[in-house]
Design a protein that fits this description.
Number of domains: 1
Number of strands: 0
Distance between the termini: 75 Å
InterPro entries: TPR-like_helical_dom_sf
CATH architecture: Alpha Horseshoe
Order of helices and strands: HHHHH
Radius of gyration: 20 Å
CATH topology: Serine Threonine Protein Phosphatase 5, Tetratricopeptide repeat
Shape: elongated
């Protein structure tokens, strides 16, 4: 009986440890993504969010962040193509996204201000 109880305790500790590693890996990817965004490395941030999504595929937040970030990426593409009006449109989409990240929203606002100064 003691062996069964010990085996159960070890299994529970192992499962708890795996969950913590899983959670830590997800959090690390999210943090790396936000750091990349702060450095205006939007494509790199998108990659980190994609990894986080693979770790937690049902997480709605990371899906929202990816969508919001995709608007900034699209805006930068439009800006480089010389289409400022379209770029501003995409940034407005990122800014107005319900339940989006406040950090991504702020980066979208800052990017919009830069574009409007062109």
């Amino acid at each position: 009986m003691k062996k069964v109880a010990l085996a159960c305790m070890i299994a529970m500790l192992f499962i708890a440890g795996c969950e913590k590693k899983h959670e830590k890996a997800y959090t690390e990817q999210i943090e790396l993504a936000f750091f990349a965004i702060s450095q205006e490395k939007f494509n790199k941030a998108s990659g980190y969010f994609k990894i986080a999504e693979k770790i937690e595929p049902d997480d709605e937040d990371v899906q929202l962040y990816m969508k919001q970030l995709s608007y900034i990426i699209q805006a930068n593409k439009r800006k480089h193509a010389g289409d400022i009006e379209d770029a501003v449109h995409y940034l407005n989409e990122a800014i107005a996204m319900p339940n989006g990240s406040s950090r991504i929203t702020e980066k979208a606002r800052a990017t919009k201000e830069k574009i409007l100064l062109l």
